[in-house]
Amino acid sequence: MTHPPFVFDQWANAHQQRIEQVLAQTLPVDTVLPERLHAAMRYAVLGGGKRVRALLSYAAAELAETTLERADAAAAAVELIHAFSLVHDDMPCMDDDDLRRGKPSCHKQYDDATALLVGDALQSLAFECLVETAAPQALKQVQVLAKATGSRGMCGGQSIDLQSTGKRLSRSALETMHQYKTGALIEAAALLGAYAANETAPQLINTLTQYSQHMGLAFQVVDDILDATADTQTLGKTAGKDALQDKSTYVSLLGLDEAKSLVTHLHTQTLALLAAFGAQADPLRGIARFICERPF
User: Fold this and answer.
1) How many domains does the chain have?
2) Which residue segment(s) compose the domain that 248 sits in?
């Protein structure tokens, strides 16, 4: 019996709708105390974004041969952490951006204090999602997400970014910063999905780690390219801020053409990693193509 060809857009759309429903059910309703905080949490999370990290969790869970239901907590947790990071990144004391996902940033829609609390509450809720499942590998999931969020991950990367404004970074230093700031959570997204299974082979974890490290770097390089070439309406956030803030980027360091070549190289490496897998890896191949082929 032949199976219909895999269509990534259909797969992604179905899983994007699924995670939106999971998040809507996971977030506290805004009719429960404290109503304003809960409303701001829902504002920051729902109705926006491509849900790339959630898609990674679902795709990795599929490769690990576990169910969508088991992967829901992983996908929700990583999206809540991502939303928390965006809320805090946009605040005046960080990147100071008034626009996110095509609408006012959380601190502009509400206020700075509420935005700070939104980020804190979303982080707590993410870990609550994982431990409530009582899955066999839930403790491992908590460890992975905690490391990706903390000083050796996303928060550390943001700290390095703030200290590096106006400085010319080497390629190695730039890559390290983005491995922390962007790559760590992308890697965690894939590993959380894999650890949603009852047990996960070390070889699969190794492959997903390499895959997500390539994709984390590609994601950032493409972001740098788009920041230099796309407009604000296309991005859904303020375009050209890296240049205005005198930040080192892959475009400023390598030039536009070499940055694009790096994305192509990372995509090729990623597909080679997945060559040994069959159709179950098609979602991961589709995500790689989506990340690397976003229009420049």
Assistant:
1) 1
2) 8-292
